[in-house]
C-alpha cells in the first residue's frame, strides 16, 4: 500500500467520476462529463503508458464500412439497424474531427477504396447507393476501375475498384495526443500505468482498488465508467463481448510514392494505406479467428506471412520494399455490430464493444455515456 500524505489524500483519492480506460471512448466520456459539470472531479485511469487496446494502434481510417463489409454486417443486423449504425459511424467521425480539429489530427479526405477480386463489385454499388441515399443525399460509391493501373495493383488479380467519397484518414498518434491534451486542459486528472484490480460498491460510492509501480492504492468515486472495450470482462464478467486481436505491418520508407487513400479488401478484414511514404497494411484476422480471440498482444506468423504475400502479389508487385516492423492492438466484438452501453448498477456503467470501429464510434459513444451519467448525477 502506498504511503500518502494528508495533501495527497485530500486531492487525489476522492472523485465524482472515475473513467477506466484512456482510449477514445474513455477520453470522450471524461471530457464531455467534465465540460458539462466543471465543478465535478473527474479522473481517467489507464493501465498502459499509452492506451492499451487499439486506440493508439489502429490504422487511422475514418470510415463506416465498405460494400462487402456492410453486406457481411447485414447477416447479423437488420437493414434499419445497420443504417442507423452507418449513421453513427459517419457522424461519429465528423464529431471527432470537429472536436479536435482536422489539422491537429492530420485528417485527409483521400477517399476510401475497396479492391474487387471477382470483378462484380461495381454492379452491387448501385443498390448500396440507393440504400444509403436517405442518409448521405448523394451517391457514396463510385466505379474507380480506371485508377487500378495508376495505383500499381496487379490487374490480373485486382479486377475492380470501388471508391467511397466520404472516407478519409487521420494520424492516430496525433489524434490521441490531441485528445489527451484536451482532456487535461478541461481539468481531468490522468493516471497512466495504473491498473484497476477490482471495485466494490458501497452505500455512498464505489471503492476502486488500483495497482501502480509504487504499490497498491484505494480510490473512491461517486460513479465508475468502464471504457475498457476488449478488457472489460476482467471487471464486468457478464459483458457480451469477445476480444479480437488485429495485426499491422509497415514498410520501411519507400523510394516511390504509394497510392493515396484508405484501401479495404476481404470484407474489410484487410486494409492498407500510405503513412509517411510507407505502406501500412493490416488485418487478415479472419484467417485465424480462434487464435486471434485473445487479449494478449503478439504477432501471428501465419497472418504476417499472408500480409507480406499480399503486398508482393497484388498491392505493390515488382516494387522494391522492405518490412520495417509489426504490432498488434486488441479490439472487441459481439454477435451484433452495435456498441454496448451498460448500466449494471446505479453507480457502475460501461461503454464498450466497438467492433473494430473505434475511430468512428468512440467519440459519440463516450459523449452518450457522459450525458447519461450527467442525468444520473444531476
**CATH homologous superfamily label of one domain:** FAD/NAD(P)-binding domain
Strand content: 25-35%
Number of strands: 18
What is the CA–CA distance across the termini?
34 Å
H/E order of the elements?
Answer: HEHEEHHHEHEHEEHEEEEEEEEHEEEH
Tell me the layout of helices and strands.
Elements: H1 6-12, E1 14-20, H2 24-36, E2 42-45, E3 61-62, H3 67-73, H4 79-100, H5 102-105, E4 112-116, H6 121-136, E5 141-143, H7 148-151, E6 160-164, E7 168-169, H8 172-185, E8 189-191, E9 195-202, E10 205-212, E11 215-226, E12 242-251, E13 262-265, E14 270-274, E15 279-283, H9 301-315, E16 323-333, E17 340-342, E18 348-352, H10 358-377
Parallel strand pairs: 1-2, 1-11, 2-8, 4-13, 11-18
Antiparallel strand pairs: 3-7, 4-6, 5-6, 9-10, 10-11, 12-15, 12-16, 13-14, 14-15, 17-18
Amino acid at each position: 500500500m502506498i504511503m500518502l500524505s494528508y495533501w495527497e489524500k485530500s486531492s487525489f483519492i476522492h472523485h465524482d467520476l472515475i473513467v477506466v480506460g484512456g482510449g477514445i471512448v474513455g477520453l470522450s466520456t471524461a471530457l464531455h462529463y467534465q465540460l458539462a459539470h466543471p465543478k465535478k472531479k473527474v479522473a481517467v485511469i489507464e493501465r498502459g503508458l499509452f492506451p492499451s487496446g487499439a486506440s493508439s494502434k489502429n490504422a487511422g481510417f475514418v470510415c463506416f464500412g465498405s460494400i462487402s463489409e456492410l453486406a457481411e454486417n447485414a447477416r447479423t443486423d437488420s437493414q434499419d439497424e445497420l443504417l442507423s449504425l452507418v449513421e453513427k459511424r459517419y457522424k461519429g467521425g465528423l464529431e471527432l474531427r470537429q472536436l479536435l480539429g482536422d489539422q491537429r489530427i492530420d485528417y485527409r479526405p483521400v477517399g476510401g477504396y475497396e479492391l474487387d477480386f471477382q470483378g462484380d463489385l461495381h454492379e452491387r454499388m448501385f443498390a448500396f447507393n440507393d440504400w444509403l441515399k436517405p442518409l448521405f443525399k448523394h451517391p457514396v460509391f463510385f466505379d474507380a476501375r480506371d485508377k487500378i493501373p495508376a495505383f500499381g495493383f496487379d490487374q490480373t488479380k485486382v479486377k475492380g475498384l470501388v471508391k467511397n467519397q466520404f472516407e478519409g484518414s487521420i494520424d492516430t498518434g496525433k489524434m490521441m495526443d490531441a485528445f489527451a491534451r484536451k482532456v487535461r486542459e478541461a481539468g481531468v486528472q490522468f493516471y497512466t500505468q495504473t491498473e484497476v484490480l477490482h471495485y466494490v460498491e458501497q452505500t455512498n460510492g464505489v471503492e476502486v482498488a488500483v495497482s501502480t509501480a509504487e504499490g497498491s492504492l484505494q480510490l473512491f468515486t461517486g460513479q465508475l465508467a468502464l471504457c475498457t472495450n476488449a478488457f472489460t470482462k476482467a471487471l464486468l464478467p457478464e459483458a457480451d463481448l469477445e476480444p479480437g486481436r488485429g495485426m499491422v505491418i509497415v514498410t520501411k520508407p519507400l523510394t516511390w510514392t504509394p497510392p493515396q487513400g484508405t484501401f479495404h479488401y476481404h470484407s474489410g478484414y484487410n486494409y492498407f494505406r500510405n503513412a509517411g511514404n510507407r505502406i501500412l497494411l493490416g488485418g487478415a484476422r479472419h484467417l485465424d479467428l480462434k487464435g486471434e480471440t485473445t487479449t494478449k498482444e503478439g504477432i501471428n506468423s501465419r497472418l504476417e506471412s499472408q500480409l507480406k504475400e499480399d503486398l508482393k502479389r497484388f498491392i505493390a508487385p515488382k516494387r522494391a520494399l522492405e518490412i520495417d516492423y509489426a504490432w498488434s492492438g486488441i479490439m472487441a466484438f459481439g454477435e451484433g455490430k452495435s456498441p454496448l452501453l451498460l448500466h449494471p448498477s446505479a453507480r457502475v456503467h460501461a461503454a464498450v464493444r466497438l467492433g473494430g470501429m473505434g475511430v468512428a464510434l468512440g467519440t459519440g459513444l463516450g459523449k452518450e455515456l457522459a450525458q447519461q451519467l450527467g442525468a444520473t448525477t444531476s
